[in-house]
Specification:
The protein is α+β, with helices and mostly antiparallel strands. Helices cover 39% and strands 30% of the residues. It has seven helices and eight strands, in the order αααββββαβααβαββ.
Length: 168
């Protein structure tokens, strides 16, 4: 406990410790002690007196090795989520093509159930989905209109979506 040692200067000691740079903390960990000047007086702080805790920044993944630190922003933006949904559609459509015995060069038409969870992604990325799957047409359609068609149900981002994939 540093309180009894620093007494009235504890607030200044806390500020001095908090102000240490990464390099100074690494040196402190290596040497096991660190001199601090507080109120004109020099104190030697030992590793046994403090607990050094490393915390990640929310939304970031941080890794350290030696003097190298790498930080990745792992926040999933709306745009990234929509791209991910589009890629999932490409994967599911390709699987349906394969299961249906279509040739690699066969052109297709795709009708996707118009659900709020996927509609934005399909609308924004229909060109990408079409180019990756050889779809001449990608259409969002109300659930009722799919009932009379030969649809399959696929899981996209934990949402069950009806989809029709037909050879043109």
């Amino acid at each position: 406990m540093l309180g009894p040692r620093f007494g009235k200067a504890m607030k200044d000691a806390g500020a001095a410790i908090t102000a240490l740079t990464q390099e100074e903390i690494a040196e402190f960990e290596k040497n096991g002690s660190r001199d601090l000047v507080i109120g004109g007086e020099t104190f030697t702080l030992t590793a046994a007196e403090v607990e050094i805790i490393s915390e990640d920044i929310p939304g970031w993944l941080v890794a350290n090795e030696g003097r190298l630190t790498v930080a990745l922003d792992i926040t999933v933006t709306d745009e990234l989520l929509q791209e991910g949904i589009a890629r999932e559609f490409v994967n599911r459509i390709q699987n349906i093509r394969k299961e249906s015995g279509f040739e690699v060069t066969d052109k297709i038409r795709v009708i996707i159930e118009d659900l709020p969870a996927v509609a934005v992604a399909v609308a924004r990325h229909s060109g990408y989905i079409a180019s990756q799957t050889l779809a001449l047409d990608i259409k969002l359609s109300p659930t009722a209109e799919l009932a009379s068609l030969n649809f399959k149900e696929i899981d996209v981002e934990e949402v069950m979506v009806k989809i029709v994939v037909d050879k043109v």
